[in-house]
């Protein structure tokens, strides 16, 4: 057995102590820990599990480890652990460019800049869909909206984390495409990235870190290249099928708004329509606006509150 390998007791499967590396209680050479050896002698039949020979103190072979050998073993163990961490860190480097859809996190745009966290958590707003664990208001979105559309009141982007995935799905289904203060709200799943400490195989120092510290589901993982490929259309279909959204306009079209936010880069795939009567990919075509008939028929799921 190599010095770099772990020594495990074949009976209790616990790692042998360094002092037990040269402990062999039977002439056949079958090696176990001293705890199991004592348990067999005192509580069981007192025989070697391998050769069935009776244990005897006279047959015990034990050579104490010298200080030099002990130092060598500890050095080799540290080297092995450091090498293992380096290999894991190398295997995680590609995850820095990966984003994972977080099913209990939603991102909403179109809300007035006067909105507060307390209002968003209330039962009149997103609190009606389930327990909310965290709310983050993106004020940078308000600055961008005023510079892009001068003269219009600024809006903000809001990240809302629910305790349950089901609550987030209900919130998206109800809010996406609805009206608030004369604006159309857009709601979709939020994305997250891997924690930098996780990528370096180190314990995270932030107890409130919202990034991933374990491998995400492969089906919900994508890269920037995926956004430019046709794969994203299949992803849209899967999300739509999973949520069972009812986006009807004259019982003909279903609409889905899916926005991916990756760092400072925002890639949007907006308003694709799909014929409910012909479930075929050839009926995919882009649309830019919701028809007025649909907007008039839909009721706003969030009660209008005057924000001061």
TrEMBL record:
<feature type="domain" description="C3H1-type">
    <location>
        <begin position="189"/>
        <end position="216"/>
    </location>
</feature>
<keyword id="KW-0678">Repressor</keyword>
<dbReference type="GO" id="GO:0016071">
    <property type="term" value="P:mRNA metabolic process"/>
</dbReference>
<feature type="domain" description="RRM">
    <location>
        <begin position="104"/>
        <end position="192"/>
    </location>
</feature>
<dbReference type="GO" id="GO:0010557">
    <property type="term" value="P:positive regulation of macromolecule biosynthetic process"/>
</dbReference>
<keyword id="KW-0804">Transcription</keyword>
<dbReference type="Pfam" id="PF14570">
    <property type="entry name" value="zf-RING_4"/>
</dbReference>
<dbReference type="GO" id="GO:0005634">
    <property type="term" value="C:nucleus"/>
</dbReference>
<feature type="zinc finger region" description="C3H1-type">
    <location>
        <begin position="189"/>
        <end position="216"/>
    </location>
</feature>
<dbReference type="InterPro" id="IPR034261">
    <property type="entry name" value="CNOT4_RRM"/>
</dbReference>
<protein>
    <submittedName>
        <fullName>Uncharacterized protein</fullName>
    </submittedName>
</protein>
<keyword id="KW-0175">Coiled coil</keyword>
<dbReference type="InterPro" id="IPR000504">
    <property type="entry name" value="RRM_dom"/>
</dbReference>
<dbReference type="GO" id="GO:0016567">
    <property type="term" value="P:protein ubiquitination"/>
</dbReference>
<keyword id="KW-0863">Zinc-finger</keyword>
<dbReference type="GO" id="GO:0030015">
    <property type="term" value="C:CCR4-NOT core complex"/>
</dbReference>
<dbReference type="InterPro" id="IPR003954">
    <property type="entry name" value="RRM_euk-type"/>
</dbReference>
<dbReference type="InterPro" id="IPR012677">
    <property type="entry name" value="Nucleotide-bd_a/b_plait_sf"/>
</dbReference>
<dbReference type="GO" id="GO:0008270">
    <property type="term" value="F:zinc ion binding"/>
</dbReference>
<keyword id="KW-0539">Nucleus</keyword>
<dbReference type="InterPro" id="IPR000571">
    <property type="entry name" value="Znf_CCCH"/>
</dbReference>
<keyword id="KW-0805">Transcription regulation</keyword>
<keyword id="KW-0694">RNA-binding</keyword>
<dbReference type="Pfam" id="PF00076">
    <property type="entry name" value="RRM_1"/>
</dbReference>
<dbReference type="InterPro" id="IPR039780">
    <property type="entry name" value="Mot2"/>
</dbReference>
<dbReference type="InterPro" id="IPR001841">
    <property type="entry name" value="Znf_RING"/>
</dbReference>
<dbReference type="GO" id="GO:0003723">
    <property type="term" value="F:RNA binding"/>
</dbReference>
<dbReference type="GO" id="GO:0010629">
    <property type="term" value="P:negative regulation of gene expression"/>
</dbReference>
<dbReference type="GO" id="GO:0006401">
    <property type="term" value="P:RNA catabolic process"/>
</dbReference>
<feature type="domain" description="RING-type">
    <location>
        <begin position="9"/>
        <end position="52"/>
    </location>
</feature>
<keyword id="KW-0479">Metal-binding</keyword>
<keyword id="KW-0862">Zinc</keyword>
<dbReference type="GO" id="GO:0051254">
    <property type="term" value="P:positive regulation of RNA metabolic process"/>
</dbReference>
<dbReference type="InterPro" id="IPR013083">
    <property type="entry name" value="Znf_RING/FYVE/PHD"/>
</dbReference>
<dbReference type="InterPro" id="IPR035979">
    <property type="entry name" value="RBD_domain_sf"/>
</dbReference>
<dbReference type="GO" id="GO:0061630">
    <property type="term" value="F:ubiquitin protein ligase activity"/>
</dbReference>
<dbReference type="InterPro" id="IPR039515">
    <property type="entry name" value="NOT4_mRING-HC-C4C4"/>
</dbReference>
């Amino acid at each position: 057995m190599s010095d770099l390998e772990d020594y495990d007791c074949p009976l209790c499967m616990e790692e042998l102590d360094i002092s037990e590396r040269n402990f062999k209680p039977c002439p056949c050479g079958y090696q176990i820990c001293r705890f199991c050896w004592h348990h067999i002698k005192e509580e069981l039949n007192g025989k070697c599990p391998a050769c069935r020979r009776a244990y005897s103190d006279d047959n015990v072979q034990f050579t104490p480890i010298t200080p030099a050998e002990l130092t060598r073993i500890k050095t080799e163990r540290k080297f092995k652990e450091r090498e293992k961490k380096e290999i894991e860190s190398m295997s995680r480097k590609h995850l820095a460019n990966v984003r994972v859809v977080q099913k209990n996190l939603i991102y909403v745009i179109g809300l007035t800049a006067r909105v507060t966290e307390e209002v968003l958590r209330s039962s009149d707003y997103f609190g009606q869909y389930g327990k909310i664990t965290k709310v983050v208001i993106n004020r940078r979105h308000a600055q961008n909206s005023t510079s892009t559309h001068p003269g219009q009141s600024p809006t903000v982007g809001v990240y809302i984390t629910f305790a349950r995935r089901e609550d987030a799905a209900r919130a998206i289904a109800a809010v996406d495409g609805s009206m608030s203060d004369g604006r159309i709200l857009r709601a979709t799943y939020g994305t997250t990235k891997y924690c930098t400490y996780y990528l370096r195989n180190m314990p995270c120092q932030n107890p409130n870190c919202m990034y991933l510290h374990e491998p995400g589901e492969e089906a919900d993982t994508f890269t920037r290249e995926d956004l430019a490929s046709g794969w994203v259309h299949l992803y849209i279909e899967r999300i739509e099928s999973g949520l069972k959204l009812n986006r009807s306009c004259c019982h003909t079209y279903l609409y889905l708004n899916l926005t991916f936010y990756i760092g400072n880069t925002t890639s949007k795939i907006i308003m694709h329509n799909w014929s409910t009567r012909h479930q075929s990919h050839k009926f995919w075509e882009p649309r830019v606006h919701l028809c007025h008939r649909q907007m008039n028929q839909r009721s706003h799921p969030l009660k209008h509150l005057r924000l001061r």
